[in-house]
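Working notes for the structural subgroup meeting. M.R. asked for a predicted model of this chain before we commit to crystallization trials. I am recording the input and output together here so anyone reviewing the notebook later can reproduce the run.

Input as submitted:
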Amino acid sequence: MSADLLVLPPQDDVARRWAARLAKEVPDINVIVAADEAEATRVLAAGCPAAYGTMTPALLAAATGLEWLQAPMAAPPAGYFFAELAAHPVVVTNLRGTYTDHVSTHAVALLLALARNLPYYLDRQREAAWAPDKRPETILHLQESTVLVVGLGAVGEYIAGLLRPLGCRIVGTDARREDQPDVVDEMGRPEDLDRYLAEADAVVLTVPHTPETYRLMDERRLRLMKPSALLINIGRGAVVDIDALAAALRGGVIRGAAIDVVPEEPLPADHALWSEPRAIVTPHVAAVGPHADDRRFAVLRENAQRFLAGRELVNVVDKNTWF
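Returned structure, recorded in C-alpha cell form:
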C-alpha cells in the first residue's frame, strides 16, 4: 500500500527536513510539501488521506478523504483543536513522550534551585557580595516535604521517580490515570487538587493546556498554598495566571516559583516576574537536550508506517480534551 502525506504550510526548517527524511525512510509514503494554502487545498480536495502540521478550518473544509493528522508538537497550542476538527472523523496524533527525560530533569533542577535559595545567591554573586542567609525558613528541606505533582503522565511520573531518592512524600493527581505508580505515595483526581494544594510544600505542574486546565492556578488556588510553598510550571503557560502569580510572590502568598512557560511567549519585558527575586524564569527550554529531534521524527515515521499497514496509530489525541 502507498499513500500521500501532505506537509501543511507554512513549514519551518524542521518540517522541510523531516519531509525529505520521511520520503527516504518510508518510500511508500508520497510526501507532498505544499508551497502555500492554495496548493494544500488542491491536494486535500483530491483526497489526500494524511497530513502533518497545523490544519485550518478552510483547509479541513476542503478535505475529502483526510484520515490522519500528525500534530507537529507534543501539546498543540490553544486553537489547534477547533470545533470542526473535533467533530471531524480524522484521527489526530501528537509528539508527546519524546523529551520526557529532558523536561523532568529541568523541573527537578528548578525545584532544587528554589529549595536551596539559589536565586538569592545568584543575585549576590552579581553584586560580588558575600552575604550568607542562614535563616532556616529560606530552605525547603525536601527530605521532610510533600511534593504535589499535578499530572502523572510520562513527565509527571518521571519527575516523581527523580524526587523519590531525596526522601520526599510524593502526591499526584491525574485526569485519566487509574493506576498509582510505585514512585507516588498517594494519588488523587483533579477534584482533589484544592485539598492537596493546602498540604503541599512544593507543587509541580506538568499538565497540558486544555479547556479544564486553563488558568488552573489562579489567584484563589495560589492562596490555598502554604506561604512557604514553591510552585514549578513546566507544563503549559496558560495553566498559570502569571499576573496572579507575580502578585502572590510580591505579597508573600507563596515563597517562590519557577516557570519555563508563559501564556504568551516571549514574556513581555516589563512583566513583574522578570525582576521578582523569588522567581526563576527560563524561556521554554525544558525540552532542550540531545536526541529530541530524532525522537520526535521517530513518532512521525512510526505513525506513517502504521498508517500504511492499517494499524493503530501511536499518541492518539482526544480532540475534545486536546490531549
